[in-house]
Amino acid sequence: MKTEWRIFLIIGAFLLGATILYGVWTWGDSGGQVEWIGTVALLLSFLLCAMCGGFFWFVSRRIDLRPEDRPDGEIADGAGEVGFFSPGSYWPLGLALAAALAGLGLAYWQFWLLGAGLVAVIFAACGLLFEYYTGTRRTAEH
Fold first, then answer.
1. Any alpha helices (H) in 30-132, and if so which ranges?
2. How far apart are CA 51 and CA 48, in angstroms?
């Protein structure tokens, strides 16, 4: 995780510098008015990178060093089971369709379609999250 938060720190520092430079440049070029859309977009991009970098920094302090974070780490140290991935789930497709429905509602500014899409997104996300806790795929451990 050490590598990840450093990457986000570098990108965030660049975006903060670009935000300041862009704001000053547009202020001087247009005679005293800042072009707010680009400045806010760059600022929000910086904040997103800072949020992701802060999360990775927070997590990296609480877990052991991974092989890719150690200078003496070998490729074979990272071998083995990575995690559990569902072999055949239809919930990601439903989640994508629900997000597309909500996106169409937002694009066409139809609040009823946006609301239906958001409810469908919540339903599909819950279905994906609880897939192995209910129904026929329920395991005996849970």
1. 36-62, 91-107, 111-129
2. 5
Give 43's contacts (C-beta < 8 A, 6+ positions apart): 19
Residues 67 and 73 sit within 8 Å (Cβ to Cβ)? yes
Q: How many residues in the chain? A: 142
Helix or strand run (H / E) with residue 23: helix 2-29
Residues 12, 100: Cα–Cα separation, whole Å: 30
CA gap 94, 87 in Å, rounded: 16
Per-domain residue ranges for the chain?
Answer: 2-72, 91-137
Below-50 pLDDT ranges, the chain: 142
Query: Phi and psi dihedrals of 4, rounded to 5?
Result: -65, -45
For residue range 104-133, what is the model confidence (pLDDT) as tens digits?
A: 999 999 999 999 999 999 999 999 888 888
d(CA 133, CA 25): 55
Overall pTM surpassing 0.70 (yes/no): no
Q: Which amino acid is at 7?
A: I
